[in-house]
Amino acid sequence: xxxxAIVATGLTKFNKTEKPLDSLMLSSxxxxxxxxxxxxxxxxxxxxxxxxxxxxxxxxxxSELSGIKPKISHSVESLCNSGTNSLVSAYAYISSxxxxxxxxxxxxKADNPGLxxxxxxxxxxxxxxxxxxxxxxxxxxxxxxxSLEDLAYVSVKNHKNALDNPYAYFEKPxxxxxxxxxxxxxxxxxxxxxxxxxxxxxxxxxxxxxxATKYTDTPIWITGIGQKTISASxxxxxxxxxxxxxxxxxxxxxxxxxKTAxxxxxxELHDAFSVCEIIELEDMGFCxxxxxxxxxxxxxxxxxxxxxxxxxxxGTGHPLGATGIAQVIEICQQLGGKAEKRQVSGAKTGLVHxxxxxxxxxxxxxxxx
Amino acid sequence: MTRFEDExxxxxxxxxxxxxxxxxxxxxxxxxxxxxxxxxxxxxxxxAILVEFSSKDGKNFCVGEFEDSIRVFGTIDGxxxxxxxxxxxxxxxxxxxxxxxxxxxx
Lengths: 369, 106
Description:
The complex is a heterodimer of chains A (369) and B (106).
Chain A: E1 4-11, H1 21-35, E2 46-50, H2 58-65, E3 72-76, H3 82-95, E4 101-108, H4 129-144, H5 148-162, H6 176-180, E5 200-208, H7 209-215, E6 220-229, H8 244-257, E7 266-268, H9 274-283, H10 292-301, H11 312-316, H12 320-335, E8 349-356, E9 361-368
Parallel strand pairs in A: 2-3, 2-4, 7-8
Antiparallel strand pairs in A: 1-5, 1-6, 4-5, 6-9, 8-9
Helix pairs in contact in A: 3-12, 5-9, 5-10, 9-10
Chain B: H1 3-9, E1 14-18, E2 24-25, E3 39-43, E4 47-56, E5 59-66, E6 70-76, E7 87-95, E8 99-105
Parallel strand pairs in B: 6-8
Antiparallel strand pairs in B: 1-2, 1-3, 4-5, 4-7, 5-6, 7-8
């Protein structure tokens, strides 16, 4: 397989706007063409769009609006991890030699239809994601003694990190008291434990090793990929204190990259809800099982930005189709030493974790400078 | 409306079962997801095990498991103490744009 590099990125502010989806996508593509040396539209032979918006022929429309006539163009949809699914598809086209340069763009509107999976009959009348999150939370609290305060620290930490991210939806800090007293959605999920659906777009340009230096002097290499789907139904998660798809995906990504959790300097993980960050830290090997809450508290107390430096989904907002790509962009900025106030000193290896529908599917990507 | 939805609407919880390997296919489908055999409809036991629970606005909701394999979200009538692993009985089911399952404790 050919080596594959990320060579350029583009991002929009996450907010709520009147902009249509195609305009959002173009807004994140524009800086890639403005800021990348030697890049012309004719160089791009793959355009992939990531969204849950059910827009017909979208990748072809975006290609036309961007002045690109690619060999390959199509949309990728996989609910919340659509973004990293599209990146992995583009990686496959390039690593196989089928293409040389791919533009991957994701975007979502706040009112997108990907927030609820109607197909999942097993959710009964409890379709909204807060209900599966509440089940993970109940189970983790029961088995490991996780407290509502422990959960609140995830939100406080990630909102604090988001203050240094100019693209984040939230622009103000939230105290422990604010989170603890935010609206109860269930007995163990409060409003500020949740990521916020919003508008946003993110784009990356990836290419083969042979082309990388044409566009940048500081390529970021995709060295590990793991993906796993266990089901579409949330209720197929046997163990509610763990995320099976994440454990499989991260093991594959570590194996491919010849890395372990100890080698990872900086992480963007899928904190759709507070409990998700705690479980994922444990399942990806950043601490022992049952120690996720303690790790979060330590990170907060020491102002350590290793986990979710851009603010995660809770602090940054969650435009589904853009989220995974925005996570990748953050890690690229970290590994390139360009994350400004969010910079994790000396970061050389980063990890992105993106998942869907109560962790019925997960993607993990390892990136290196 | 599908057969499954129509039966739920009449307070009958049914599931598809493979005629070849007897696997219970949940959520229901036209073919077995183990061997692609044809399926028939059959009633699901009323007895379930409480897997996990929480509450919203003082009302309990849970994941219950039927026949060691079929898990659904539902509400739990009553306010008695709950312990994962305890037995539940499906008191009522319905379909009104989405499935509805109501359990009671044994």
